[in-house]
Amino acid sequence: QVQLLQSGAEVKRPGASVKISCKTSEYTFNTFFLHWVRQAPGQGLEYMGIINPTRGSTTYAQQFQGRVSMTRDTSTATVFMELNSLGSDDTAVYYCAKPLWNGDYAFDSWGQGTMVTVSS
Amino acid sequence: EIVLTQSPGTLSLSPGERATLSCRASQTVSSNYLVWYQQKLGQAPRLLIYSSSSRATGIPDRFSGSGSGTDFTLTISRLEPEDFAVYYCQQYGSSSVTFGQGTKVEV
Q1: Across chain A, which distance is largest between two alpha carbons, in Å?
Q2: What mean pLDDT is reported for chain A?
């Protein structure tokens, strides 16, 4: 069964950066693009972007362009999401997610979520 | 960007009742690209329905999806106690992915 294991909770100051990891297992890493979605406390889901694990190419949602970077380490089958210039409205749970099939955007496996708190 | 509006915001029902959740899009959405998730408190979303009407693996047949164009519906034929949760629709197309704001199904 596909597993996506994310790194632990983070507390950051405004203006700082955060880097979250998502380690994959139980499937071939290059098989699926991986996505990131976030959810502010008590709010809905917000799509952040996608990374191709094979090429490392990325596409980011417009509202995060210039502030987010998604990378991967093929040796450990891990993807990373780094968000810069954090503000209080970046306080959220961040999820990595795998699609049903490559090129699709219906997410059938999710990481457990990483809580990021931005506070002075 | 396509905006998805879900209604109602909250649905108060009892176990055994039928739940009908609506997701309306600001522009036409391909039926292939309309998805429904269930989310319980403190958990990641769970895929229920993809391509508007196909049930994901392991999803009970009391869950069904329908619709096309700009109007989509998730129906739960008979609510079980474990179905009380928040439900989100999602669309993807034109290099854009958006979610509805969610419908809470409560007792």
Answers
A1: 41
A2: 95
State pLDDT tens for residues B39-73: 999 999 999 999 999 999 999 999 999 999 999 99
Looking at beta carbons, which residues of chain A come within 8 Å of B74?
none
- What is the per-residue pLDDT for B69? 93
CB A28 within 8 A of CB A54: no
* Interface touch A105/B90, C-beta < 8 Å: yes
Q: Which residues pair with B67 in a beta bridge?
A: B72
**Alpha carbons A16 and A83: distance in angstroms, whole number:** 9
pLDDT tens per residue, range A9-42 = 999 999 999 999 999 987 888 889 999 999 999 9
Amino acid letter, B93: G
B 59-98 → A contacts, CB under 8 A? 88, 90, 92, 95-98
Of the partner residues B1, B46, B101, the one whose CB lies closest to the CB of residue A44: B101
Residues of B in contact with A111 (CB under 8 A): 44
Give the pLDDT of residue A29.
80
Instruction: Work out the minimum CA distance from A70 to partner chain B, whole angstroms.
Output: 17
Q: Are A110 and A96 in contact (CB under 8 A)?
A: yes
Whether A110 sits inside 8 A of B92 (CB atoms) is: no
Which tokens hold the place of B30? 């391909």
State whether B92 and A105 contact (CB < 8 Å). yes
Quickly tell me which residue has 């199904």 as its tokens.
B105
> What is the DSSP annotation of A13-29?
-TT--EEEEEEEESS-G
